[in-house]
């Protein structure tokens, strides 16, 4: 067996199951799960209809590149969303089966393991796929801490020259899971300069890009930043996007990558062997979803309503603030994060995720310690009920 499989960490939800083993939450309180980032708003009917209207596509093998219609829908969406010229739908866009598999596969494609000392940069706390992708690509993860005292920003100065020299791939998550931070133009400029200097590829995970509060201020995307900085060929940059959160279709498994045409050509080659082409009915449903914004605005309205109602209640007891974007509250706990999550589950049947499960010790700290991630994915009523129970729990501490 591949020995690198033994280097993988248990997934956060597995650790949570272990933490909660044997506890008996009060029978009278129904469970409210705010631990997993699974959108729970309704899937729009027109997406379901597009899927079922094209079931005849099941009779055909799909191509790795996907249909022209889908790639053009994606290129058109990128142009509208980011105010950039439509990317070349043939060479700069590739559909993927959700951003997760693509984020993982990308490291397998990009990392040159023959160099023996490869590092893959990951934010910390982070989405665990980055780490697993690095390890199975024969690299080591290197962590960029997102610390409260630095406003959860990426402190590129914290990485030493000797580490930068070994980085082959840098994962960036903007809007960030779990802190909700969005990278600004100056941060992108800095990262592009570092990428040029040290020769690494940037993988920008933007799967939360469409969940934001202010309709007038959508999060900046990496391709938009590249254009603004005159990097029109997106050299060394690939963005990862997804319909899962935007359109409430986590089960559809649909996203795309876009950016540097040379890198995407290699990624396409890798994917032809990996065999991860998107099913034709899913392609039709995806094109319909990318071509519509009405349901996305409504989706944002629902999240906004929840943040408006829940943030003040939680913030009165735990250090937290409304995020730039995304659907998480990243909240500081007065006791350890695992004790907090355990107590809240045991006494109030509300599930949140300990921050330390989403982070690794780096530079002498685990930046997830003393934080919990609260995913506002349930209904408004449930989120409000959970916030009241969190308040009651905090009052007792
Ligand atoms: C930061 C981040 N990236 C990527 C994903 C994967 O999403 P999907 O594979 O549904 O596109 C998730 C899912 O929760 C996530 O939190």
Which labels suit this protein?
three-stranded antiparallel sheet; globular; 13 helices; Aspartate Aminotransferase, domain 2; 397 residues; alpha/beta; Aspartate Aminotransferase, domain 1; binds pyridoxal-5'-phosphate; seven-stranded mixed sheet
| Strand neighbour order, sheet with most strands | 2-8-7-6-5-3-4
The residue ranges in which pLDDT falls below 50 over 5 or more consecutive positions are: none
Q: Mind telling me the CATH superfamily name of the largest domain?
A: Type I PLP-dependent aspartate aminotransferase-like (Major domain)
Strand segment count: 12
Broad shape: globular
The distinct ligands, each listed once, are: pyridoxal-5'-phosphate
Class derived from helix and strand content: alpha/beta
What is Rg?
A: 21 Å
Quote the beta fraction. 5-15%
Q: Into how many domains do the coordinates divide?
A: 2
Q: Classify the fold: give the CATH topology of the largest domain.
A: Aspartate Aminotransferase, domain 2
What is this structure, in a nutshell?
This protein is α/β, with parallel strands linked by helices.
Overview of the molecule:
This protein is an alpha/beta fold and 397 residues long. The chain has 2 domains: 3-42 and 295-396, Alpha-Beta Complex (Aspartate Aminotransferase, domain 1); 56-292, Type I PLP-dependent aspartate aminotransferase-like (Major domain) (Aspartate Aminotransferase, domain 2). The chain is built from 13 helices and 12 strands. The strands form 3 sheets. Strands 2-8-7-6-5-3-4 form a 7-stranded mixed beta sheet, sandwiched between helices. The protein has a 3-stranded antiparallel beta sheet with strand order 9-12-11. β3, α5 (129-136) and β4 form a beta-alpha-beta unit. The radius of gyration is 21 Å and the shape is globular. It starts with 11 loop residues before the first helix and ends with a helix. The site of pyridoxal-5'-phosphate has 13 residues, from α4.
């Amino acid at each position: 067996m591949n020995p690198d499989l033994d280097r993988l960490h248990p997934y956060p939800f597995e650790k949570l199951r272990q933490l909660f083993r044997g506890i008996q939450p009060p029978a009278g309180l129904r469970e409210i799960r705010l631990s997993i980032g699974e959108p729970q708003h309704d899937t729009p009917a027109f997406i379901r209809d597009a899927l079922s209207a094209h079931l005849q596509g099941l009779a055909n093998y799909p191509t790795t590149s996907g249909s022209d219609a889908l790639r053009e829908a994606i290129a058109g969406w990128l142009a509208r969303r980011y105010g950039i010229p439509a990317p070349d739908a043939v060479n700069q866009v590739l559909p993927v089966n959700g951003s997760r598999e693509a984020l993982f596969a990308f490291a397998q494609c990009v990392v040159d393991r023959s160099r023996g000392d490869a590092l893959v940069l990951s934010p910390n706390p982070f989405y665990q796929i980055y780490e697993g992708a690095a390890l199975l690509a024969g690299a080591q993860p290197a962590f960029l801490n997102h610390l409260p005292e630095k406003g959860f920003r990426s402190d590129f100065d914290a990485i030493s020259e000797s580490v930068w020299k070994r980085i082959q791939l840098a994962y960036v998550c903007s809007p960030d899971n779990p802190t909700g931070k969005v990278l600004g133009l100056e941060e992108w400029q800095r990262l592009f300069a570092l990428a040029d200097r040290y020769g690494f590829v940037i993988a920008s995970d933007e799967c939360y890009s469409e969940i934001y509060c202010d309709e007038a201020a959508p999060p900046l995307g990496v391709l938009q930043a590249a254009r603004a900085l005159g990097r029109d060929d997106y050299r060394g940059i690939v963005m990862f996007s997804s319909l899962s959160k935007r359109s409430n279709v986590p089960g559809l498994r649909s996203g795309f990558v876009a950016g540097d045409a040379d890198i995407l050509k290699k990624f396409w080659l890798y994917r032809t062997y990996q065999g991860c082409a998107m099913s034709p009915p899913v392609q039709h449903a995806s094109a319909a979803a990318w071509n519509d914004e009405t349901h996305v605005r409504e989706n944002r309205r629902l999240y906004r309503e929840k943040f408006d109602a829940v943030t003040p209640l939680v913030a009165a007891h735990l250090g937290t603030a409304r995020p730039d974007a995304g659907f998480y509250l990243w909240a500081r706990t007065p006791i350890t994060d695992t004790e907090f999550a355990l107590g809240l589950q045991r006494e109030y049947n509300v599930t949140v995720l300990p921050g330390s499960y989403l982070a690794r010790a780096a530079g002498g700290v685990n930046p997830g310690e003393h934080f919990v991630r609260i995913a506002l994915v349930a209904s408004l009523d449930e989120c409000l009920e959970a916030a009241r129970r969190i308040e009651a729990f905090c009052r007792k501490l």
